[in-house]
Amino acid sequence: MFYYYGRKKQIAKHYPSPNFEAIVEPFAGSAAYSLYRENWQKDVFLVEKMRASPRFGNG
Question: What whole-number percentage of the chain has pLDDT above 70?
Fold first, then answer.
């Protein structure tokens, strides 16, 4: 959907409002969508798990 990382704050106004009481943003960065307008009043879960590369022997 996006061809680059970051800078989603400028287009957050085009996203629909959340339908649930929790927002899960994988690789959230600055969490622009979660903090947009009244979204910050929801439960926000930022998931940023790095997976090690097998070539370095960690997975």
Answer: 51
